[in-house]
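agent: user wants the structure for Phosphoinositide phospholipase C from Adineta ricciae. delegating to structure tool.
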Amino acid sequence: MSKAYNFDWQIEVSARLLKGDYFDRWDEENGTLEQNCLFRVDSYGFYIYWQSEGRDGQVIELSQVSDIRPGKAPTDTKIASDLMANSLVYGRGNIDERTVTICSGIDFVQISHTNITGVDQATAKAWIEGLRKITHNHKANNICPTTILRKHWMKLSFMLNVNKKIPVRSISKTFASGKTEKRIFEILKELGLPSGKNDEIDPTDFTFEKFCDLYHKICPRTDISALFDELSGGKDYITTKQFVDWLNETQRDPRLNEILFPHYDTNSALRIIDRYELRANYRDRGHLSCDGLTRYLMSDENAPVFLDRLEVYHDMDQPLCHYLINSSHNTYLQGRQFGGRSSVEMYRQVLLAGCRCIELDCWDGKNDTEPIITHGKAMCSDINFKEVVFAIRDTAFVTSDYPVILSFENHCSKPQQFKLAKYCEEILGDYLLTKPLESHPLEPGVPLPSPNGLKRKILIKNKRLKPDVEKRHLELFLKGLDTEANYDNDLDSAANVEGEDGPAVFVDTVKLREEDDEAHPELNVDSNDDVNRRTLLGQLGIKFKEKTNLSREEEEALMNRYQYKGATTNIHPLLSSRVNYAQPIKFSGFAKAEERNIHYHMSSFSENVALQHLRQNPIEFVNYNKRQMSRIYPKGGRVDSSNYMPQIFWNAGCQMVSLNFQTPDLPMQLNLGKFEYNGNCG
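agent: tool returned. relaying tokens verbatim.
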């Protein structure tokens, strides 16, 4: 564009982090303890870097850091005793209070925990606060190629060997892709730098300019050179007029508004030349060299994304159903849908990534003690519901202040449902939206509140009792008359749930295969442990293999035995009363939904059913999404936790297009890119 845009992506790093502090770094997995490491952060906020006496320098890339947490003392007795001995010598305080844990990784599953213990509690607190301010800087993921080159150069400058020098071997590894070491050594020699395989370079000699020269010799931009030759007609410069013509005819997006984004003229072209042309004699004549053109094309002015849209730029005062919502499916799983491992950490990582709708599959715990979260009867491990709520409280509003929706798949008994409600109230506190806003009552025709109106609020999505039934049952419960005799039994409970009284409508009045239609098809037999798994697989004629992952044969056999057990309709009145703007109901057709005109009702569709609706009722589906929310989830056959392409459902206005965050495939990458815009607010 002809108007200059200042891409302000940096977050100021505190003076204390720039100067650095000494920490003891320890790792229980490999039993290592590295003492007296000087930890620092660079001025750009790219890296946490450190080096101790007699060891090579190390770095953690801040773009890969997901969380900074107060740490805890190690359970490894040797590491703990060494840290404690150090504490006694120097009179330091409790290890827990002095420890910081840095969580980092390139995906949501493989997370590394770097534990560092400082000299006192104040040091740990200063680093926790300082690092939290500069993490989750999504703008830094969109820096220009020139800044990325500087980032690579800085990493080499921090990873010094024990002699405080840059090993030539490290440089060759940086450029190893598709290039032979011999060629890299030759170019280093041409630049007057040490070039032997075992040589080392003084950091003061390896300047950023030298690194750029090395880069352009190893990875020449032949595409830019060809463009320059075409524009210059064989000369060693481009004139201002040639540059203006090319900017307007080729480089400028013709779809841009000519008033907001006027065409380039001589002045705007000269501004670019003055900024990117380093030769003074060329600048004075208004000429641009090939190097100047390269610097311009590798700058922020030619970013492949709309840099100004990385801030919150949408109007956030429209009804909630007017926005796409970053949504997760089976949030707790780290791997496959069968036999997968459940993890509390996944909730932390997904929320810290900006997700605003997470799924909790709630079941009664063993011996009816505590409610758990698991992919019921699919041989997945389980996690404690209460621990998940604590994780949600700690991470819900770190990345974004906009509302979080807890999508409950509720299979719990009444007593366990009471615990679900109480834990949410007690742990989430004021975050939990327990009743509708006065400005947006739960009445037909009243639109949903806006994201701004629900800032820092957590909503529960769960089936709700009809108002009169809920009121009667809640009064009985509060009077202490909460017995099963006071409630309708499970067979009749569906009639008491809002939106459950009536037949479900399927496309073409033909029900799809159950494994494609349901979000959570569950096996009727309990297969959570090896004993029941042996029995189940024996019935299927499959040899049981102890403590191994499910084979493809086992998965296919289990899928054939799949029978869905839907979420309970026997709802505890206290849990029911905490549901407001996200009330799931059985889908009874677009015409019925329009007739009801209840904006806080929503329905969920498997990807296959949603596609059928898009083929047969596209206009009705879009109009439905204008009024109320819909949620799309992967078909049951995706046992490998693969994802579907979300774009087609976004195009129809489906708000919650839920994906398996544990799988970094193309659909998930598209989802991450989509929600990086608008301030990564979810």
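agent: one observation worth passing along. The first strand starts at residue 21 and ends at 27.
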